[in-house]
Amino acid sequence: MRRLWSVMLVVLCGLLVNGCFGTQGKKHYYRVYYRPNPAPVSQITATARIRTLEIDKVYRRYNLVYRASPYELSYYTNHYWASRPSDMMTDLLYYHIKAANLFSDLIIKLDKTPDYEIGGEVLEIDRFDDNGRSYAHLSMVLTLKDFKTGKVIVSHTINDRREVAAPDPLLVVRAIGEITEKEIEVFIQKIAAEIEKQ
To answer: What is the pLDDT of residues 156-177, one digit of tens each?
Structure first.
């Protein structure tokens, strides 16, 4: 009898451990991605540095975020960014501007003194649900500054949301990529127009 209780205790402990530490669901990793196809612009003969974008503390985690109101947010437990969102969005900005051939010299590391600095802040990057509909949502500010004076030459504010067919993280991430591509292109055109005026 004592042996039976011992066996049952071992089985029960095994079930409890498996329930607490067992499979929690497959983890999924995402990145915002697109292949830039920029419109032609006149190249600016200057060195521009891309500075790593700042990001709101709420979005510094690797977990994707979803919200049902401006006041409450939740983190996905099995859906993660493949890299830090600030790094991911900075890389997209760099590769899009490089593909546009906007500056004769584009750098990330501050290994020389640039003429301009491009930076900004990611304010919100999430799935937003409203009245039974799901949206990919991106809010950020991009700036071009004179490196020596710190004066803002061009500022571009983004606050866009795009409806997705279902609250699927993959659809949300893809739509965020579409928003990002469109808005960085607008930013590039603004820079080209402003520098041409000067």
So the answer is: 999 999 999 999 999 999 999 9
Regions in the chain scoring below 50 on pLDDT: 1-23
- Kindly give the residue spans of alpha helices, DSSP state H, lying in 22-138: 85-100
Q: Are 28 and 78 in contact (CB under 8 A)?
A: yes
What sign has the CA pseudo-torsion 157, 155, 39, 34?
A: negative
The whole-chain average pLDDT of the chain stands at 90
CATH superfamily of 45-197: ABC-type transport auxiliary lipoprotein component (3.40.50.10610)
Count of Cβ atoms closer than 10 Å to residue 122 Cβ = 22
